Amino acid sequence: MALDGTVISCIAWELNHALAGGKINKIAQPEKDELMLTIKNNRKQYRLLVSASASLPLVYLTDQNKTGPMTAPNFCIFLCVSISEADASSGSGDLAWNVS
Fold first, then answer.
1. What's the pTM?
2. Which residues are paired to 75 by β-bridges?
3. Helix/strand/coil (H/E/C) assignment for every residue in the chain
4. Average of per-residue pLDDT values in the chain
5. Cα(21)–Cα(26) distance, rounded to whole angstroms?
6. What is the mean pLDDT of residues 56-60?
7. Euclidean distance between CA atoms 30 and 58, whole angstroms
8. What is the mean pLDDT of residues 82-89?
């Protein structure tokens, strides 16, 4: 499937609809090029997987949990300190993270 403007618009709408106003509860780095954000919103828990893999970059909501390493990588610790307890707010139709 081609990743054109229509597909990107649908992905952005779905993520905005599900995550806007939510709180980041947990940040994990199961692989060196993946992040798993656990976000609570409207009494539901969402897992957002973000992969920066060169061969297959992905962003999607999943129900499955990936186990991470026993000790958190430095980048994951940096993100936890920087954006933990942030909320996702929808301003002008774009999903943005407000760091408090």
1. 0.74
2. none
3. CCCCHHHHHHHHHHHHHHHCCCEEEEEECCCCCEEEEEEEECCEEEEEEEECCCCCCEEEEECCCCCCCCCCCHHHHHHHHHHCCCEEEEECCEEEEECC
4. 80
5. 16
6. 87
7. 14
8. 60
